[in-house]
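Support request, priority: normal
Reporter: lab tech (M.K.)
Component: structure prediction queue

Hi team, I submitted a job for Peptidase T from Neobacillus sedimentimangrovi yesterday, and the status page still shows it as pending. I've pasted the exact input below so you can check whether something in the sequence is tripping the parser. The sequence length should be 410 residues. Please let me know if I need to resubmit or if it's stuck on your end.
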Amino acid sequence: MKNELIERFTSYVKIDTQSDESSDTCPSTEGQWELLRMLVEELKEIGMEEVTIDENGYVMATLPSNTDKEVPTIGFLAHVDTATDFTGKNVNPQIIENYDGGDITLNEALNVVMSTKDFPNLANYKGHTLITTDGTTLLGADNKAGITEIMTAMAYLIQHPEIKHGKVRVAFTPDEEIGRGPHKFDVTAFNAKYAYTVDGGPLGELEYESFNAAAAKITIKGNNIHPGSAKDKMVNSMKIAMELHNQLPAQEAPEHTEGYEGFYHLISFNGEVEQTQLYYIIRDHDREKFNQRKATIESIVQSLNEKYGNETIQLELKDQYYNMREKIEPVFEIVEIAKQAMESLDIKPVIKPIRGGTDGSQLSFMGLPTPNIFTGGENFHGKYEFISVDNMIKATKTIIEITKLFEQKA
Ligand SMILES: [Zn+2]
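Reply from support: The job had stalled in the queue. We restarted it manually and it finished. Here are the results:
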């Protein structure tokens, strides 16, 4: 299984599939089409059935049931795009066999070193086979490791018909990193009862709680007058913006919060005297507190509009996704099964709330409850991204085990 995983993974990461927020197309970039089409061919090659790609690039395939039992159809999903934060062009994966636990020189010439001092987690990987970058790009383990593991698990199940399972659906999707992953996902066509995204980090990660998320775009109008004759006339929109920001609780920001604590995060502040634009994201695991946060922003805007005149501040508040826990708790057995699958492989499940969202956050509200399981990668979205092949094997086995358990429990 090891060589098969390395071969697949390194072939996927060499295709530049970085997504692009400024593009209106779906997928947002041409590179994603290239990988999606390649995956269609590979799914057919390994013997999957009903392999389809739709006009938005969503790839789906079926592993038919091989049991007489009535087993619910389950799905596994991974996204093909890589993060926008760091370049994914010319990825040149480096393989380290039997890692010695010390500092890893990613790039001798540029002196890029991943040190055990900065990355104490490296201690967990002594003796593993690791795949790293060459220090100039991200790796793309997020989420090409997930694709690799799903593909390899399906190939394994096809080659081992003695393992009984129900119908399994697989989907590879575009544009997760720009939050559009599920937007055009055809839940009806996918037709699974439950699914898992294979898009987590280190060994054992199992997630079914995400943030509730909203974005606020605030536009403040000022009035620019020559400063020499501005008395009682000039309205400086940047100062109103600061006044607005200062009314938000200073401690409720990403840099001061953790665990289940929510926040307001000022993403950008673009201002001149005449006009200022603020862009916030609002996050909270608790739906009630999330609504309160939105109400707080609304009331600050309202009070400043009363002070400066009604047209001064415009607020556009938009929900982005919700905490999937709401939709997963009523079918909690899907978390229990993933947990049990890991435990039967001697993997300790690490269950914690995500301080972010996954495709599952949106899919769960589209009628497909979708927790998230680990891929084995770390330090996503940058040049220190790496993955343990040993843990990729465990992720692949977890997928296989989950399909087995659904059959056994039916
Ligand atoms: Zn991801």
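The mean pLDDT is 95. The radius of gyration is 24 Å. Let us know if anything else looks off. Ticket resolved.
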